[in-house]
Structures are given as structure tokens and as C-alpha cells.
Amino acid sequence: MGPHPAVAAIRLAVRRVLHDVLTEFHRHADNERPAEAARHPAHAARSRYAEAGTAGAPRAALPERPDTPLVLVACSGGADSMALASALAFEARKLDVRAGGVTVDHNLQPGSGLRAAEVVTRLTAMDLDPVEAVAVHVGREGGPEAAARDARYAALDAAAERHGAAAVLLGHTRDDQAETVLLGLARGSGIRSLSGMAAASGPAGRYRRPFLQLDRQTARKACLVQSLPVWDDPHNIDPAYTRSRLRHEGLPALEKALGKGVVEALARTAQLSRDDADALDTWAAEAELSVRDDTGRLECAKLYVLPPAVRRRVLRRALIEAGAPAGSLFARHLEEVDRLITGWRGQRAINLPGRVEAMRQGGRLVIRQS
């Protein structure tokens, strides 16, 4: 008899991601091998000899490959990430993958250190290695939720670099995706915000989200049938947090008014929006090369004839390159800069986040640190 359907679903989702990681890892290794052989021909000869084996020596006698990719799971101890950790542990044993885990202690609640230690114990019991807990300090910039997220990703980035991980798995589900789309809609941040979370993101696609097509109940059911203990973060039901209110009040109200299927529809919207946003980003990257003069400055006349969606992407890229923090650039900022192109009335320089200013001079858009 096979595993419970919920367990089978989470394992299949993780298996697909691990296959992608392995494919990319070996492609990268194959691309590097010719260059390495050219630099160290004697070493390359020894490697070929080791791979072929000596007469009478079975291939199994060779030492374990030192270049087996490591995949980490980011685990809070909640149902989503515990289900993810269990699936990673199971699938990694069948593939040429090492599996480890990281839990981040945000120090926001009493006893958080003890809970982090418990998560480490549970991950270790799954035979994950390496496993570690990382304590972080959460600042205040951008609000509590954004500050906690920034601190968490900084810790995960550091852990991935420290251990040389090929990927870090995150337990975001289809429900999380729907919430992210609604939050983006409420902010009026544009189509990129409506695209939600990508299946792969971060440096070189480091972060992978296998569960974006699975609902939260599937992950919780998988934990239940496997007798996996889970911790329900009280912040997830605290109405002081925007995402918590949306989860427990906003989405249920939408489903009551519109009927079932809202979460699935929002997840589909995210994918469609992502496809459109990716296409527009590609167009903007190509267009940027044609709207700069010989000195690299942006020409207002050439920017003016671009479609607004493309022009504003070019402007956003230029502002970020000048030092404006991406997370602090909002639609109103881009609209003000865009008016220097489309509604020029002799405006003064516009002050932007990151001490960046934009001004129009001699038909050129000048963006610089103030």
C-alpha cells in the first residue's frame, strides 16, 4: 500500500524540485570541467583514472563524490515547513543529494530559542545534516513583518553560503501565494507585485518553493498522518499583523461573497501576471540600450515614445542602479519621475528613497545620489 495521498503529493513536489536542482548542478559542473582540465591537466588525468577504476576494483569502492549538491530546508517548525523537511529527507535518500536544515530564531517571542532547539532536534532525527539554528535581530524598517522577513532571508543567505548549498527549500503554499497577490493588489504595486512568489528566486535561483501548487491543508494532513509534531506560530493568528487579518478575515470573506475557488484563482492570476511581467522586463532590458546617449545618460525623447509599462521599468532599473532601495520604491515615486518625461513643466529635482534624486537637464534624465 502506498503513502497517504497528502504525503505522496508533497514528496512528488519535492522530487521534481530536486531533479531540477540536480540537472542545473551537473550542467554547471560540466561547464566548469573543461576549464579546470585546461588549468590542471595532471589533475584531470587522475580524475579520469579514478572515474574509470583500476582493474579488478569495483566502482562502488570509490569514495563518495565530494561535489554532491547540498539542499537545505528552511524550517520554522510549522506544518508547511515540517512537511517539506520530511519530504526532503525521504527523497534525498533516493537521489544523489545531501539534505540539511536551518531554522531561524527571530527572538520575537518568549521561549523562541527553546523552540528553535526543538526544531533542530526534529530535523536531526530525520537524518538531515547539517542542521543548525540561527538567531537574528529583527529591526523596524518597513514594519515588523518586512523587518522579520529581511532578517530571515539574510540569515538563510548566510547559511547557504556557509555550507555551500545549491538550493534552499521554502514551504510557501498556494494559500500563501493567494495572500501575497491580494497584498500586492491592496498596495497598488503593479503587475510584478500581482505575480506573487516565484517558484525559484534569489541569487542563481537559490530559493525553491515546491508547494506553490499545493494547499495548506495538504501539508498539515501530511504532518498528521506521519505523526510529525508541528508548532503553530501565534503571530499567524494575531490581528496586529496584516497577513494574519487577511488569512483569517479577508480571504474567508471573499470566499463567502464569491464562492469557493478564490485561492486557486488568485494563484492562477499570480502565474499569468508573472509571465506578463517577465516579458515586459525582457522588453525593458532591451529597450534601455536604445534610450541612452553615448555617455550613458537617458534621453527623454526616446523614453517618451516607449509604452508606459516599458518606460517605467527602465526608470525603475535606473533608480535602483543609482542606489534607491528596491523595496522602498513605490508606484507614486515612479509616477513622479515619469512626469519628468511625459509632463515636463520645468519641475525641480525629485527626491527619492536612498538619497537618490532625479532631474531633467538638457533633454536628458539625470539620476544620481544627492
State the helix count. Answer: 13
| Fraction of helical residues | 40-55%
Secondary-structure class: alpha/beta
Average pLDDT score:
89
What is this structure, in a nutshell?
The protein has 370 residues and is an alpha/beta fold. The protein has helices at 5-39, 41-52, 79-92, 112-125, 144-163, 174-187, 191-194, 216-225, 242-258, 262-290, 300-304, 308-321, 331-342; strands spanning 70-74, 98-105, 131-135, 167-169, 200-201, 207-208, 298-299, 350-352, 356-361, 364-369. Mean pLDDT is 89; it is low at 43-65.
Describe the SSE topology:
Blueprint (H helix, E strand, L loop, with lengths): L4 H35 L1 H12 L17 E5 L4 H14 L5 E8 L6 H14 L5 E5 L8 H20 L3 E3 L4 H14 L3 H4 L5 E2 L5 E2 L7 H10 L16 H17 L3 H29 L7 E2 H5 L3 H14 L9 H12 L7 E3 L3 E6 L2 E6 L1
Parallel strand pairs: 1-2, 1-4, 2-3, 4-6
Antiparallel strand pairs: 5-6, 7-10, 8-9, 9-10
Helix pairs in contact: 1-2, 1-3, 1-8, 3-8, 6-9, 6-10, 10-12, 12-13
